[in-house]
Write a sequence for this structure.
């Protein structure tokens, strides 16, 4: 019987293998380490009643894609900041912060403030970054704006986001994403309008007056409710699909209509408001998962500006 010789691994080879194994583990270790570190920082801030949050900026640099920018008019990105976690947990100190941004060379950017304060009495503040084209764009061209807000006192925390605007049709659009054997389909609605329309008169505003996104951000919650950038109504056949009742968009909807099927009420129509320069996804479960409704008019969508 022939013997098989086993070659011994030298000490130097062992070291190389260990180093190689460590290199392979680095991405996982780095990701896990960053997650654990961020959780520890969040817990520390919470213990100090320090909250520095935003509706668009995040600690992990949020990314937004906005199709259908017209490429001609100035574009406002309104950033809302706050110093609370919920109605009970709020910062009891004023929080100062600074603002920075970068943008593509084909646009000029400026901001309404380079530094600001979130006062403990209100726990909210906002600023606007305006992007003005300084070049001629064609369909498919894009620009990128990166915005960062960093608290400077009493603690330091960075929030940031990147906004990519793609030139195309201006206004509202929607599309259905679906595949055979998917349990549900998704309706994505995109609103590229950068203004709000008054639906109920208040103060010096009349019905159908337009309000810029930056002016809208300064309104009280009561008056904001009297405006809308776009109002979307969706209708569908509950024999074919039915809505996900836990979807955030549906939970904020109104004018909900139903029809009876086998003695039960099923939703077949509802309406919701959209903020300017935003997109939302509505999920619908399919009665027949084997169907693909991507190119079919299974959900009817109507817009009101």
């Amino acid at each position: 019987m022939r013997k098989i010789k086993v070659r011994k691994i030298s000490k130097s080879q062992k070291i190389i293998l260990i180093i190689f194994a460590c290199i392979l583990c680095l991405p996982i270790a780095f990701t896990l380490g960053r997650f654990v570190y961020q959780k520890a920082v969040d817990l520390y801030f919470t213990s100090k009643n320090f909250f520095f949050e935003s509706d668009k900026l995040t600690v992990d640099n949020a990314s937004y894609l906005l199709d259908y920018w017209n490429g001609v008019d100035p574009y406002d990105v309104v950033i809302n900041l706050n110093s609370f976690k919920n109605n009970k947990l709020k910062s009891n100190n004023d929080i100062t912060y600074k603002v920075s941004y970068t943008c593509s060379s084909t646009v000029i950017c400026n901001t309404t403030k380079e530094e600001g304060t979130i006062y403990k009495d209100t726990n909210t503040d906002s600023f606007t970054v305006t992007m003005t084209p300084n070049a001629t764009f064609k369909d498919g061209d894009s620009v990128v704006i990166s915005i960062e807000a960093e608290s400077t006192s009493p603690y330091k925390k960075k929030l940031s986001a990147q906004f990519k605007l793609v030139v195309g049709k201006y206004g509202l659009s929607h599309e259905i994403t679906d595949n055979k054997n998917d349990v549900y389909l998704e309706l994505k609605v995109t609103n590229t309008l950068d203004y709000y329309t008054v639906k109920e008169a208040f103060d010096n505003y009349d019905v159908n007056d337009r309000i810029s996104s930056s002016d809208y951000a300064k309104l009280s919650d009561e008056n904001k409710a009297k405006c809308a950038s776009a109002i979307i109504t969706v209708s569908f056949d509950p024999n074919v699909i039915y809505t996900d009742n836990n979807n955030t968009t549906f939970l904020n909807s109104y004018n909900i209509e139903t029809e009876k099927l086998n003695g039960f009420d099923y939703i077949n129509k509802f309406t919701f408001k959209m903020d300017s320069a935003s997109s939302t996804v509505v999920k619908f479960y399919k009665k027949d998962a084997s169907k693909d409704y991507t190119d079919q008019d299974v959900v009817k969508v109507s817009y009101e500006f």
Observations:
- The CA atoms of residues 63 and 162 lie 5 Å apart.
